[in-house]
Amino acid sequence: MMGNFKRNIFDYIIYVIIILVCILCLYPFIYVLSSSLSSPDAVASAKVWFFPVDFNFDAYKKIFEDQQILIGYANAFYYTILGTLVNIILTVSGAYPLSKRRLRGRKLMTILITFTMWFNAGMIPFYLNLRDLNLLDKRITLIIAFGCSAFYVILLRTNFQSIPEEIEESAKIDGANDLTILFKIFLPLAKPAIATVGLYYAVSRWNGYFWAMLILKDPKKIPLQVILKKMIVEMDIGEEAMQSADAILSLSKETLIFATIIIGVIPMLIIYPFIQKYFEKGSMVGSVKG
């Protein structure tokens, strides 16, 4: 009886801790959302704590009237979707051959790829290399220059190695070649791992702003994250968003920044539930060694 009582007390303590952690994780998002839906006076006077004060959608209306923000939003989708597709293709193309024991020089290739995870030329030589190749201020640069991660190649290679060799041998007996085995056997079986790696790539693409800020100079090519960085760090909202006296009365730079942050987060919040089942299955990708 006493054991059950202690177990119940322990369970309640765990529930309380989990609830507190959830509140700590969710509160910043709730605060930003509430501030974006509140009046400038309420935000400036720190009246917003949890729920919106003087509820309105003025900040979101102004954002969707600002052409620069809309262009940046479209660019962010372009770089994320196309870039993630290129990432997955290159990662699978590197991981699949490395998972085959019959590949000559396999260990040396693995060592060289792993070596780049800790040692690289550095930021300045990388930038100079892009400049010498005439790749600055071009959309394709963000796609191909960051097309593959050695870390994810190793993870996916290890996942491919965990697939029993007997399956591949039986497919070869039926006349399947390497491409058929890859597309018909390995990719379907590794779908959770590929979805997990793809999610990591997509989040990195969507949140990336540093190299986009250095490489791209044309305002029509920069993604939303670079615009958001300018808004937060430089408090540079732009002429179109704050052009009228009525806008100044109903908006502030803070409410516009908060609204832009929410708009930037929404795509990841929408996508994650659809791939959550794959993420749960692939969360241990690379932990099984063949």
Protein traits:
transport, Carbohydrate ABC transporter permease, MetI-like fold, 0% strand, mainly alpha, 73% helix, 290 residues, transmembrane, single chain, membrane
Write a brief structural summary.
With 290 residues, the chain is mainly alpha-helical.
Q: Please estimate the helix content.
A: over 70%
CATH topology-level fold name of the largest domain: MetI-like fold
| Topology as a string of helices (H) and strands (E) | HHHHHHHHHHHHHHH
Return the CATH class of the largest domain.
Mainly Alpha
- The structural class is mainly alpha
C-alpha geometry: globular
CATH architecture of the largest domain, please? Orthogonal Bundle
Distance between the termini: 47 Å
Question: How does the SSE layout of this entry go?
Answer:
Layout (H helix, E strand, L loop, with lengths): L1 H35 L3 H5 L13 H8 L1 H32 L7 H13 L4 H10 L6 H6 L5 H12 L3 H9 L4 H12 L1 H17 L2 H6 L8 H10 L11 H6 L2 H30 L8
Helix pairs in contact: 1-15, 3-15, 4-8, 4-11, 4-13, 11-15, 13-15
Written description of the protein model:
The protein has 15 helices and no strands. Helices cover 73% and strands 0% of the residues. The chain has helices spanning 2-36, 40-44, 58-65, 67-98, 106-118, 123-132, 139-144, 150-161, 165-173, 178-189, 191-207, 210-215, 224-233, 245-250, 253-282. The chain is an all-alpha fold and 290 residues long. The protein starts with a helix and ends in an 8-residue tail after the last helix. The protein folds into two domains: 1-56; 57-282, MetI-like (MetI-like fold). It is found in: Cell membrane.
